[in-house]
Amino acid sequence: MGAYILRRILLMIPTIFGIMAISFAIVQFAPGGPVEQVISDLTSQGGGDRLSGGGSMVQEVGQDSAYRGARGLDPEFIAKLEKQFGFDKPPLERFFTMMWDYIRFDFGESFFRNTSVIDLIAQKIPVSISLGVWILIFSYAISIPLGIKKAVKDGSTFDVWTSGVVVVGYAVPSFLFGILLIVVFAGNSFFNWFPLRGIVSDNFDSLTWWQKPLDYMWHMTLPLITLLLSAFATTTLLTKNSFIDEIKKQYVTTARAKGLTERQVLYGHVFRNAMLIIIAGFPGAFISAFFTGSLLIEYIFSLDGLGRLGYDSIVRRDYPIVFATLFIFSLMGLVVSLISDLIYTWVDPRIDFDRRDV
């Protein structure tokens, strides 16, 4: 197992490198970079001396510029902008410089927020952790027992109506359900039971020790309900189908013939085999819960997390934040994938990765 873990760790290096290289190459062809963003702001404001260190930036020049909307701006100022954002260097040099910094976990500073990227991530990550951890816990705590129950009672009334609830919940867009919850329970239209924004109240620091967790859960109730509606649907049906496939196999019939109880058969023999496919989907669920899955919810409930930070950075072309979050989440995904493989061997000791090619 030690040799397998070492090979997987070594394979993370070219994988991360490939992800970053492809993303970096795509960005080079994307219009509207940070220089264009500043030029657009300046031209829409009629000029100024922001980011120039003083002096006039607007100058009637006849030559064309490589940047859209830059006509009329001093070429020297354009050169200063390129140097400020690092675009005065060739793309290949910029990429390798970025990767060398990222290897040392030096993510630089934001182009437009005047603070370091790592500090920004540290500020936003509590919200994403709050959403991600609770969604993973609640969704798996609901999905696995429910999926097992549905497999055991396949075709029964319980199976039919729970399938209907699961499918409807999965079909309803989470953002639409979130808006409905806000209108009903937080928008003063019907009830005003829950807050509209944030994960804690403004007076959180002044609350007593027992009031703080209550205030936290009060703020998190509606976002969690919104995300849970669709989060557990896929896992529930996957668990059910996996257990049904295992229950039909010969070893289950043999175990029952030996006089084992249904509970012993289900959890002593079927469980570890059926859970392998659930474990396989854990890395994707983990990453989506922390980033992509909560993006719209963060906007709807005014939660300032990593999903919202990443989206705003893409729109603003704040590349240090974009590439830093991409690097971090790619690395997290690869590490979690390795952990999933290790859990495989814990759930089913018959699996031995050392005897297989990676």
Write the layout of secondary structure elements.
Blueprint: H1 2-29, H2 34-45, H3 75-85, H4 91-103, H5 117-152, H6 157-171, H7 174-185, H8 211-247, H9 250-257, H10 262-274, H11 276-280, H12 282-290, H13 295-300, H14 306-316, H15 319-347
Helix pairs in contact: 1-15, 5-8, 5-12, 6-8, 7-8, 8-10, 9-10, 12-15, 14-15
Describe this structure in words.
- There is one protein chain.
- With 358 residues, this protein is mostly helical.
- The protein has 15 helices and no strands.
- The longest helix has 37 residues, at 211-247.
- The model is unreliable at 47-64 (pLDDT under 50).
What is the strand tally?
A: 0
How does the helix and strand content classify structurally? mainly alpha
- Rounded average pLDDT: 79
By CATH, the topology of the largest domain is MetI-like fold
